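Example 9 (inverse folding). The structure is encoded as follows.
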């Protein structure tokens, strides 16, 4: 899979490569791209964040019940959708940065 410019930039913010790590900016860039993989990219990023915080989940890009429960154990809120909300990513990022 060849990354687009925006996906590459999002990955830089996600991983802190040449820029300060900023998960919310990465989320915004993935949403801006809206390519075939944007949901997978967002879900994989959030699952990685959750795993760094000790969640025992698969980092597979499918934000199912296990991922949702892990997120909700850290960030209280409503029901999970296909991807976590920007507000959830912002709240989760405060626990990591």
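The amino acid assigned to each position is listed next.
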């Amino acid at each position: 899979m060849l990354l687009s410019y925006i996906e590459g930039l999002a990955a830089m913010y996600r991983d802190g490569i040449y820029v300060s790590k900023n998960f919310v900016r990465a989320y915004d860039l993935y949403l801006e791209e809206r390519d075939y993989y944007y949901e997978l990219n967002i879900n994989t990023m959030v699952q990685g964040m959750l795993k760094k915080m000790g969640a025992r989940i698969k980092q597979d890009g499918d934000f199912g019940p296990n991922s949702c429960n892990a997120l909700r154990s850290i960030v209280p809120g409503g029901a999970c959708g296909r991807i976590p909300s920007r507000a959830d990513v912002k709240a989760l990022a405060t626990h990591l940065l």
